[in-house]
Structures are given as structure tokens and as C-alpha cells.
Amino acid sequence: MRRIMPAAHEQPDIAAPVERPRRLRRGAAIRALIAEHAARVDDLIEPMFVVPGTGVRTEISSMPGVYHQSVDRVVEDARAAHEVGIPGVILFGIPERKDDAASGLTDPSGPVQRAAAALKRAIPDLLVIADLCACEYTSHGHCGLLDASNNIDNDRTLELLAAGALSLASAGVDVVAPSDMMDGRVRVIRSALDARGFSETAILSYAVKYASAFYGPFREAAASTPEFGDRRTHQMDPPNAREAVREATLDVAEGADIVMVKPALSYLDVVLRVRAAVNVPVAVYNTSGEYSMIKAAAAKGWIDEPRAVDEILVSCKRAGADLIITYFAREAATRMSGRAGGSGA
Hints:
Elements lengths: L27 H6 L10 E7 L6 E3 L7 E3 L1 H13 L4 E6 L17 H12 L4 E6 L21 H17 L4 E4 L6 H11 L6 E8 L6 H7 L19 H13 L3 E5 L5 H10 L4 E5 L1 H12 L5 H15 L3 E4 L2 H9 L8
Parallel strand pairs: 1-3, 1-4, 1-10, 4-5, 5-6, 6-7, 7-8, 8-9, 9-10
Antiparallel strand pairs: 2-3
Helix pairs in contact: 2-3, 4-5, 7-8
């Protein structure tokens, strides 16, 4: 039976939308044209783990695609990163021996010191950043020197950090990155560097580092799990955001050139607050746990890894980060370099 359509005057009165935002989402070209934020290759810093030896390249079991590498292999890897446009790397060292005094931190022949010198010889334009903390060097795994009651001695640790900064600067490091969360360490490090003629060495302060569950894979990578207790006496408590602004502004006042929020994804609101409070660049650390979660889900086929990584990176930029330390740097940079005009996520 033929369907009889209602007359025009009988049509339902459906008002057309006044606003049509979807017009600007119809295709990839227009979406790219009006994108409010983008992550670029120039925003990325790649972490690298340096170990003793020669010819060493051993994958870290909880971090697929990330390796323990000897100095010679770090140079090769950093050159490959630099070739896809990554401007800088951050070095973490695992010494041959650890002790209660964290003596490896100041050892001029330590893996990070040797790697920094080799990188500056081989790739002069590469920005070399070195993590500055005792946790990778202490036998007990804590971020500072201990007193008789096994509590971290904040002020004795400052002396160690200053000496470590001088050792790293002497090796050619461009930026030292104290990640210990000791009170007053930026002032002491800045004073020590300036007094020894390293006024050009910058400080990237882990100003806002939370006591987070997202560091597990890193602790395997750096063999830095505390023998006892935890790091809640010095790393920040996750519920606190106003305190983050206080920490960041204190570090800027003490001489930090860049301040960082770590981790990234659970603390993007904090990145936004810090960005509004300081007038120096803000970095964010997309941590090992965040990396490993994406890798594990992608291996199961539960997530589209490239799209997830692009969302993570652009979320950091949207929150206000200028720099992003991420284990995804290489794969993201490779994708970015294949896009028209080198545009980012």
C-alpha cells in the first residue's frame, strides 16, 4: 500500500540548530586548521638509562622499548633520537656499586658523567639533561642521606646534591634536574654552580613531584625501590594542589629556570595551576607507569596506541606544559615528522 506523506503544512515544526559546531569537524584539514593546541617534536625530551660496560643494550622488562644501555649505545640511541628532531635527552644512571653515601652521584667516572661527555662530543647540539637525585646511587634506595634514626637528613643531603650538580656540570651537562624534593635544594645548587663558574648550567627542578603509584617500572629500571619505608615524607601528597603552587614558586624564587610537575596524567589540573602561577617554562613528566599501562593495553589490542599517545601529549600541552619528558618521545616524533609541516599531536 502506497504511503501517503503528510502535506507540507502538516510537517513537524523542528527548528534548525542556530549553532553548528560540527561544520568545523567535517574533515581532517579543517580540524588541523583550527586546532587550539599541538604537541611538537620540539616539546619532547627522551629519558635514557645509562649503565656500566660496553655494548650493553638490555630491555627493561616492565617498559617495552626502553633499555639499559652503556655509554656507547646511549650515544647511538641519542643520535637516532636527534635525527627525528628530538632536541634533548634526560639521563639516569645506574652505578656499578651503590652505598649509603650515594658516592656514585659525584663520581667523575660515573655512567651519567661519561655519557654526558660522550654525547656533547658526538652531538654538540643535543640538549643533555641529567637527573640529580641520590635514589639511583644509595644502597637503601632513598632520595637522601640518612641520619641515625634512618630518616632523611635534609640539610646534609643538600651538600651531596650541590656536589653532584658540580660533577655533572663539569662533565658537560647543560641542565641539572634535582628530583629529590629536599627543601632548599635549588638555592644551594644554584649557589654552588655559580660559585664554580657554571652560571650557564640551567636547573630544571622537579618542583612538584607527587608520592605516586605510577613510578613502579622506573624503580625497576633504576633499581631504586626503597629498602624500607616509602617517600611520602618528602614527595608531595596527591590530594594537595595549593601546596604544588607553593613548591613551584619557592623553587623559582631560589633560581629554578624550569619547574616540573610529575606525574602527568593524574595531575594535569596541577600543571594548569602551576602554569598560571609562574613565569618560567613548565615541564611535565609522562612517567614510567603511564607509559607501561599504554604499552600493556596496546599489546592486548585494547587500545589504539598511537592515538592514545597523541591524546596524552596534547593533553599535557592543553594543561600548559611547555616541555614533555616521555618514553613515547621517539615514536611520537617519528609520526610527527611524517605529517605535513611537521605538525604535532
